[in-house]
Amino acid sequence: MNLKNISTSVPKKDHKGKVSGQLAYISDVKVENMVYGVLYRSPIAYGKIKSIQLPDLPEGYEAVGAEHITGPNYVKIIKEDQPIFANEWVNYIGEPILMLVGKDLDILYRLLDEVKMELEEHQAIFTLDEAIKQKSSPGVTMASYEFGESLESISAIEQGACQIIEEEYNTGYQEHVYLEPQGMLGIYKEDEIVVQGSMQCLYYIKNALITALACGDDDVRVVQSPTGGGFGGKEEFPSMMACHVAVAAKAVKKSVMLVFDRSEDMVVTTKRHPAKLKYRTALDKEGNIMSMCVEVFLDGGANVGLSSVVLQRALLNSAGVYKIPHFHAKGYVLKTNTVPNGAFRGFGAPQSFAGIESHIGHLSKRANIDPLDYKRKYLVQQGDPTITKGNFRDPILMEDMIEDLLNASNYKKKKAEFQTFNQQNQRYKKGIGTSLFLHGCGFTGSGERDHIKAKVKLYKSKDNQVSLKISNSDMGQGIFTTLSKIVAKELDLPYEEVLYPYPDTKEVPDSGPTVASRTTMIVGKLLERAAKKLKAQWLTGVEQEVTEDYVHREMIPWDEKTFTGDAYPAYSWGVNFVEVEVDTLTGNVKLEKVYANYEVGKVIDDRVMKGQIDGGLAQGLAYGYLEKMTSKEGRIQQKSITDYGPPTSMDVVTIQSKVFDNPYADGPYGAKGAGELTLIGGAPAVQAAIEDALQTSFQQIPITPEVIIESLWMKEGEEG
Amino acid sequence: MIKFNLNGRKIETDAPPTARLLDVIREDFTLIGTKEGCGEGECGACSVFVNNLLQNSCLIPIGSIDGAEVVTIEGIMESDQFKILDESYSEAGGVQCGYCIPGMVMASAALLSQNPHPSEDEIREGISGNLCRCTGYNMIVEAINMAAKKGDGLWKKQ
Amino acid sequence: MEETIIAYRFDRLEETLSQLNKANCAIVAGGTDVMVMHKSRRGVPPKITKPIIFIDHLLELKQVNQNGNDLHIGACCTYSELLRDPLIPMPLKKAIKTIAAPAIRNRGTLGGNICNASPAGDTLPLLYVYNAKLLLRSVNGDRIVPICEFIQGVRRVQREPNEILTEIILPSVLEEGAHVVFEKVGNRNADAIAKVGFAGYIRTKGAVIEDVRFAFGAVGPTMIRSNEIEKKLLGKTIPVTDMDIAKVVAAFDKIIKPIDDQRSTAIYRKTVALNLLRYFLTNSTHIQHI
Predict the structure, then answer these.
(1) InterPro entries in the record, alphabetically (chain A) (predicted)?
(2) Domain-embedded: residue C208
(3) Where does a domain end: A220, A235, A268?
(4) How far apart are the first and last CA of chain C?
(5) Domain residue limits at A500
(6) CA-based nearest residue to A470, from A552, A553, A550
(7) What is the pTM of this model?
(8) Which of C35, C36, C103 is facing B129, going by the closest CB pair?
(9) A477 chain-B contacts, CB cut-off 8 A
(10) Residue A533: pLDDT above 60?
């Protein structure tokens, strides 16, 4: 297949193996001399380990713990605060303490039950609210940033304001529920440890292994297995499992397989940070915004992990898509003795967008203006400064995208129809809501230049077959297909003849992690350039290799200390309209219609893009009203998929979507990031729709039936 | 010794009667197309046919299916029906991470063999026990709809 | 070192009963609940301590028969079989359709739903308002027990170790004239465990209420039903007055005592249960009137 238009869909590279089920995920793999590992975990939220008593281990069964770690006992991420095996303090329920390895899982589970441990329990912090109260205590604030206009000048503006509106907004956990539970295999070889498994970031893992095993670059190798969904859940968490199996494999000189049960996966793996967002907005007498102060609190859980970076993105998005005349923001990551929170599609932005869209929506009600009209008054335009004194330098198509959806959804007419319907129907109420959002593509600030330094390689064999040698994972999002397409088109080769094997760090350079909607835009661009280079040097019948390194786009330099400059090289944009019907007897919300417009520069594959839209939006919508996870005294309450409640096929409706073209100079064929963007608008739009149906305001997501019934009950109390 | 028919082959297993059908087909017969996503009948990744009915193999104690006919994704892979589903899933873009897909294909085949021309709602109900976290289902619904049309005649009830 | 697990799977009910008379066994019908309750972690069979006896294949337990206006449903009919059976009343089919998803419905049985006696058992509210009777059989003979006596608490039933639930009898269910409503409130549209279940039954002669029944699920250890409250409405005319509705709702308000758990809150469960009751009383009696 030769590619005329890059956006035209092609069959996915990995379709055959997946549709037949014959592609081996890590739990399908068996290697010689393989044993299983099971983890003994902390039963308490915070305390000191006094002693551990192991049962008599039968022959062939061994315990592996901190004493077997050759290097320092931490999982290398950013800070050194996450032990591989906790051996002194435990900081959350479920924290790994040791691993039992052996052939038979039945015996391992029995032995696990017989491990005895003496602990000295200490007073734990269980909730974000408790942590906020104690945020000045040592160790509670794990990261903090502040930026924007000075509080003095904001205060002066507030003096002249007609009114000051304060709102407090809460967002809950979100669990990834990738269909394939986490799994990692440490393969023991005389001269190297190979770690293979379900993952997004090969070099994060490799670097963590080099530190943990205190070994050389050639002593460890990381290979990605087919990965059954990631959504951020397999960004940093697998590094810990990789350390477990590698340390164990080295200790017992056998290959060690660690695969989680669903309930174990739900309870101990990272989740989206619960957040509290506080808004303080000064309004003039017409209800126009004069200034805004935002405070963001993220529940980091027991380790900082990637939370500081998540907070950065949350803060960078704290003003949404709006130009607020005078803006100030401050944010904190706070420690609680709960399961550590981490990366999840959107990475802090979904919390911020839910909050700001809610707040602006509520301000519009006060001003008695349709929320969409009110939002459009403040919409940023090309050339406007960002809240960090960067610049929106590329064209912004939001107005066109909004107009298009106003027509497609028949917004005005529908509002009137719903009003009539709601007057006539006692039980069911209909509403329509909107959300406007953006997503900064790639790493924040100078991350690509200073930390990632991506390198890509193209290899051409003697028989002229070209392979992509990059460290990025296809976890279902389709980069096998899209990146291969870019290379094929550039080289004028049939798409089928370009290969993209599962990455292996022995073969591929570090082209960066598969995160932050960076892969298509950043890695894709490097591949495009590499392909151009290869084409120029092409020698038929000769083995050739080309590499290409990241080049930074000239921007306003990012300064993390002052939080100023261009936080992102480019932005993708979106508009969602959602219609719901609420059952006022049960509080159940039914999605009726969903409309979505996006602008991602240029679509590399229409079908892959649609997959991102439908899947991302389903997650985003569910984040707003369906998926509910809670923690009680440090324990996750929902241990099964059903109790947590991600959408089934009967909860989702057809999504009418459109993608607008707006090529970006530094993306391949103009492409920008798309994967995270699609999730962000779901929750705020669904909230606005529920509010419209019930003519009330909410200060949290998810807006579960429980929340709705309570609010209706309160409303009845007020009226009656 | 429990005897049953697996993908058209008579087989015997000395697994304990409480052993999950899922483990027997994966471990003893190394058929990896049947996946484990939850082990509690909540995700459908382990869907198989038992006596022509869609079932979750993680909930089936092997002792209860003595004499039964069990078909896994491997057992339908060569069929014309599978070819249609394969094509339709590819064309509709129904496959992302792929982990739910063998189970989803089994559910699709089960639905179409009972109801060759399902409505959208019937399709959604037919796959409602098969969780997918990547696609938001719509492209899978489209794939099944496409397979119904393409395979018109093939799915007719016997 | 592995213990041998004993399991029986007889061709006939008679042999099954005779084995049950000899030893206390764990009865497994569809297994969709048992396999989850006794689940081990990944890769290991569930742990069931007693010898197991499989019954879901027994043809004697898979019949649906009409007897006058009564319906006799074999305990091991799967949900899917019942959905296809023309004799099964629509409200029961509606309740069954809310259970999990097709693969589970192909395996789970009505008898299993009763004997597991989960507070959230999907069919139970409806079976309670149908005044379902259960036929229990042992080598010593048959006995019939009303469902509300059979189910005694959370996962506790009044079954002798040598007995099998063979039939569910729905008395007079095929009679015309009753209006039956079922509502399940779950966290999503499929694969959900009930947070609240409600069944309402009303039969009128002219405008006079001859019979009225209500049952609530997932708001207590077993289904909540009260003959005493129901009686208050007998002989009244429809539409039921606001005052009578308020009285009935207030009476249930006193006896519905749900709990907070990982799926919902006590206050939500109670409010919604009463909302559904109020709605049923307001609307069902109106519809009949018209």
Answers:
(1) Ald_Oxase/Xan_DH_a/b, Ald_Oxase/Xan_DH_a/b_sf, Ald_Oxase/xanthine_DH-like, AldOxase/xan_DH_MoCoBD1, AldOxase/xan_DH_MoCoBD2, AldOxase/xan_DH_Mopterin-bd_sf
(2) yes
(3) A268
(4) 71
(5) 15-22+449-512+539-549
(6) A550
(7) 0.98
(8) C103
(9) 96, 134
(10) yes
Q: Over 60: is that where the pLDDT of A556 sits?
A: yes
The reply to whether A380 and A453 lie within a common domain is no
Contact (CB<8Å) B102/A20: yes
A570 backbone dihedrals φ, ψ, rounded to 5°: -155, 165
| Chain B nearest C-alpha distance from C33 (Å) | 8
Contact across the interface for A19 and B74, Cβ inside 8 Å: no
Those residues with Cβ within 8 angstroms of residue A416's Cβ, 6 or more apart along the chain or in another chain: none
- Å from A251 to nearest chain B CA? 27
Q: Is the pLDDT confidence value at A457 over 70?
A: yes
**A670 has a chain C CB within 8 A of its CB:** no
Q: Domain check: are C256 and C276 in the same one?
A: yes
User: Of the candidates A263, A213, A262, A202, which has an alpha carbon nearest to the alpha carbon of residue A236?
Assistant: A202
- How many domains are contained in chain C? 2
How far is A470 from A501, CA to CA, in rounded Å? 9
* pLDDT for A212: 98
Torsion, Cα of A206, A209, A210, A216 (10° steps): -80
C-alpha R_g of chain B = 15
C148 in the same domain as C221: no
pLDDT at A520 exceeding the cut of 90 = yes
Per-residue pLDDT, C161: 97
- Taking an 8 Å cut-off on Cβ atoms, the answer to whether A21 and B40 are in contact is no
Task: Give C42-78 as a DSSP string.
Answer: TTS-----S-EEE-TT-GGGS-EEEETTEEEEETT-B
Q: What does chain B come to in residues?
A: 158
Asked, for residue A142, whether it belongs to a domain, the answer is no
What is the C-alpha to C-alpha distance for residues A126 and A631, in angstroms, rounded to an integer? Answer: 8
A228 touches chain B (CB under 8 A): yes
Per-residue b or e along B104-134, where b marks 16 or more CB atoms closer than 10 Å to that residue's CB: bbbbbbbbbbbbbebeeeebbbbbbbbbbbb
The pair of structure tokens assigned to A70 is 């050759």
The residue to which tokens 């509106």 are assigned = A165
> Considering C109, C144, C170, which residue would you say is the last residue of a domain?
C170
Q: Which residue of B has its CA nearest to A178?
A: B133
Q: How far apart are CA A306 and CA C121, in angstroms?
A: 43
**Could you say which residues of chain B have pLDDT below 50?**
158
Does any CB of chain C come closer than 8 Å to the CB of residue A12? Answer: no
Interface of C with B in 76-135 (CB under 8 A): 80, 100-104, 106-107
Q: Does residue A133 belong to any structural domain of this protein? A: no
Chain-centroid distance, C-alpha B126: 11
Nearest residue on chain A to C36, judged by CA atoms? A640
CATH code at position A460: 3.30.365.10
In a 3-state reduction of DSSP, which class is residue A399? helix
Confidence at C2, pLDDT banded by 50, 70, 90: low
Determine contact: C59 vs chain B, CB below 8 A: no
Q: Which of B26, B79, B96 to mutate to test the interface with A (most CBs of A within 10 A)?
A: B96
Interface test with C, best of A39, A56, A641, A642 (most C CBs within 10 A): A642
Q: Sort out which chain B residues have CB atoms less than 8 A from A652's CB and list them.
A: 136-138
For C5, which of B18, B36, B39 is closest by C-beta distance?
Answer: B18
User: How far, in Å, CA of A684 to CA of C162, rounded?
Assistant: 57
